[in-house]
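Section 3.1 - Work completed
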Amino acid sequence: MTGAGQFLVYVVAFLLPWWHYIDLPQYLVFPLFMSELALVVLFVVDSVRRGLRVPFEYLLPLGLLVALNAVGYVAYFWMTPVEFRQPLDHVYCLYNNLWPIAVLAAVHFMSRREAALAALDVLAVSVGMWSAVALLGRFTGVFVTAGMMGLEGCWGLPNLVVYGIVAAMLGAGRRDRGSAGRWVLDGAGVMSLAAFLILGLPVLDVRQASFEWIGWWLPVQYLASWVVFKLLAFWPVARMAAKVEVVRRESQEKRDAVYLLVLMGLAALALVRYLLTIGTEYFVVALAGAWALPERAPGWYRPDWRLGAVAGALCVLIGFNLVNVNPHNFRDPRNYAPDPVFQKAGTMGDYDVSRLERVEARYPMETQTNFWLAYDRLSRGELFEAAMEYRESLWTDVTRTGQRVKTILPPPTDEQRRAFMDKLRDQSSAVAPGEHQGAYVVALLGEDRVDEALAMMRKDAGTASVVPAVDESGRDVLAWGVSVYVYDLELYERLSDWTAGDLLGLLVAWGAQIEQAPEGVADDCLPVVVVSRAGMCEASPPELVSGDGVKAVCLAGDGRLAIGRGQVEACAEGVAKTVECGAPEVVVRVKPGDGEQGKGFQGA
């Protein structure tokens, strides 16, 4: 069984950098998890048959971590409410808690130093391949890679790339390597170094130790503190490092020992800052610790065509997932659509929002980014902003550019859109019109459901209790103001049967401020509608001039648009000072006498 165990260790070493591209959750295919689980099962069987071949000084600290993680696995489901559990939680939680016993298995089977060093060679080559793919995608744009999303979204990859560099140096410097092997390892090291400098270094310190995810590892409230867990994690690392140091002092393999100590030191530094990547750190440490033990078996499995065949099959799977983002794989940073658990819990976390914003900045044609940002806005109670984000999610790549543009993920499904609209409608109905500011109407217009939008507008207009009387000559200005406010200039034609009072009542119901114009302003300039929102001048250009003499001018470059007749700039003077740019606000300037004729209106 020793050869089979070493073979599985090589497979795990090959798969470590690729876990973003290998899971097929819809088919319950998890190659890395399955390989580790098979390694653990083989380790248990072999230990029963031939005895445990792990020294006590390794076994004691790792055994405590195994027991602690076993309790943590059970406690996770005990402490997690049923409504927040996902179908694959058992798989992912078991995978996250399996690493201590997988480390024991690696030490158990790495019975010769050549086996441990060969596993590190496999890791170095695999990391080099990952780095080459990441750099190719980064600079060519032929396909989207996980590295293009920022390495802080790829748990532990900055550290793993550094380990790949050191492992490549270790392999290239060994005398038993032929020239071809050294060239391969040198190339892997160069690729890994380039990926680290270009992709990893800018974000290496972004990810802090995550307290919110400690529940994946242990029930902190009942067993131990985070500090105690860290100390337990350092204990076996210190014991293994001491073994390597003894070998360095007493043997002729000083160069190998120094490289391995560097690897273990880097892993120890990563343990200080990171929590989620402990499994990766410990795998590297386990290979170094196994190398330091006395050789316990005469033979070992040398990587051959069988490992190459498995690696080739896995490369086919990796290639497929490189060009096709699996929407079911929430562990892939490219699948930016958040886990449904965030929707059940309410607001998304800051990390998920920042990931969506990065994707939106790099790939502006994506529609799912706007859709999930709309969901986040909605969960925060920002109804109008949620409606605007949702509206942008309806603008497909063909609508925006006139040609088909490849996107990372397909647009939201009709079922997802219906669920969002139902939630937006319910939240809008639960607040006053001035608080929802016509959010549901904006979303309806985005879906081209104009008749329903007009019916909602009629309903909202009837809720305005204080509306100043305005002359019908200002109807066109108010109609254009409403159209600009909802980002739908075509709506102006559908408002032809609305009176000036109806239009002003709608704006008042949606929270518009009414201000009287200063004395001396010509009556034919009024009313003036000032709409303020970030990007308003870009969305509704100031050269907008209608056939009835209404025109719009941009009061400032930050998004304040004035709509009126004649000298709009003079009529709107002073109005812009009362409006905070960026908020979906409207200020309407009316004649000085209009306020006295209104229903209880008190002029500004």
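Second construct:
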Amino acid sequence: MRKVYTLQLSDFYPSATLPQAMGSLLGYVFQNESIKKNFEVCRTFWENETFDQIIKEIEGPDVLLCSCYVWNWDRTYQVIKFIRKHYPSCLIIIGGPEPEYTSNWLCAHPEVDLLIPYYGESVLESVLVESLMECEYSKLPGVITKKSMPQQFPKPNFDKMVSPFLNGFFENLLNNKRSETTSIRAVFESNRGCPFSCTFCDVGASIYTKVNRFELQKCFDELEWMVQNGVDAIDVADANFGILSRDEDIVNKMIELKKKYNWQGRFLPTWSKVKGDRVLRIAKNIIHNKLDSVFGLSLQSLSPEVLFKIKRKNAFNLSDLSAIISDLSENNVPVYTEVIFPLPGETIDSFLSGIHSVLDMKNVFDKFQVNQLSKYNNAEIASVDQTKKFGIEWKKINGFTRHYYGDNSKDIIAVKTEDINKEDVFEGLFYVKCFIIPLYFYGTVRSIADHLLKFHGLLRSQFFKTLYKNLESEPWFIKFKNAQRDHYFSAIEGKVQFGQILTKDPLDFFPEFSIAHQFYLKSPLFDKLEEIYPEHRQAIIFSKNSLWTNKADEVFQNIKFGQKEETWRFVDNRVMDKDSYFRELYISGRFDQRWRKKLIERVKS
């Protein structure tokens, strides 16, 4: 029997994600009798294994299959190079979104024998069968070799797809998981494909435009398996959850399973860009039944020009969204949005204008997130043509631009385009991540900004423009901004690990807003606000007393709004060690209002 080893490494320590791609591939190809007779899978590496752990457990491999993503590529490539050196006859096959789907890329990585792009099930089957015969892989449809590029990319027979949840494959992995892995995530697919063509996404390729649905009962059975086996989080891989009417049936099934098994995990969809009413109805159902705690609508950009250039269609405009947020808030559903920066066509002025338009919505999101544009090698925007057309400069960084754990992570991000230089990219990121998000979306001055709008007609955007202009002359603020600039530019040059260290654990990296939020809580910010708005001192005192700073206290404060003075009570009993406090706020509480004291009430006279 020929020994097969497979790799689809996670990087979410201490959690690991069951390897959906590898499970689907193996389930498909091992229906072939010839493959079943001649190959055996000796080991699947799917957790946060180190290079040393992996190579110790590989013995005499004949085939190495690797599913490669930006977060696991460096470790995977280490293993590939080791296998090529020590087992030169091993057939090394890779797939996944990370490698560029070209012969040139394969030549630049000579240790790899074959590259299978896009859908891999039927192509891998033909490769393994061919490896038992003449090994003439260049003649096979869908296989990239160092000397040949295929003209066709076959899709699998979707009726032949075998569920790794239901055929025992994942059960075996769970029974033999490592002790370091303390929580499990799973990827759920009720369909494959996406009818949209967003250029920043590698699912935007034309081969994926048809949405192929999996049989509904199979989907129900997979979900029941996940719930029964204690999966902590279900990441829904459907590119547009809510686009199909049957998605409501899927959520109703999840609610039924949650009640039946007392499941405490989370069900995390990637929401559809269209079918707005259905999406909102499903979102309410999910959150009211505690399958998730927040509803996210990704906008990606607020600029029509940018949206056109990236072939993006949004389901809602800001006016629609304000009404939606109001409706969802009345139903106790928190809402967040996110944008990508810098995208083609985005200038510093258009970016800040978009941010200010969000702040000036009648009803504002509970949370706002900025994701730096990452390079996914097979996304249209990553192509040589688009990179040149839009003047994008990419940089490889150590780590990610969001919260992560460990020193194995790598990413490639855009640091400039023809429309915006590196310094302005930093300025945009700093303004949002280190100013707007910690001050408004983490509540530091949210009640002040809302108070000035409600009672004095001052737009939130104008409040923040004024505050920022005043802070720019403050030595303590200048020092902080310069420290963030130094870190950012050192990180994009690969000199330091991207991310902020807040806890005792040197491998626990937080995003910029976390350290900025802590900075403002300890800064003379409120003194500065009283200097700028002395007539609104009462609102500033109210805002300061509203914040949870990891102290158990009860404060009574006389506050005068208008002509009437009232006594307000601010109470919180939460106290925890500093590391837990940071994780509570910036990981667990990223999409809610844990920054706010538990009880804020007017005391009746």
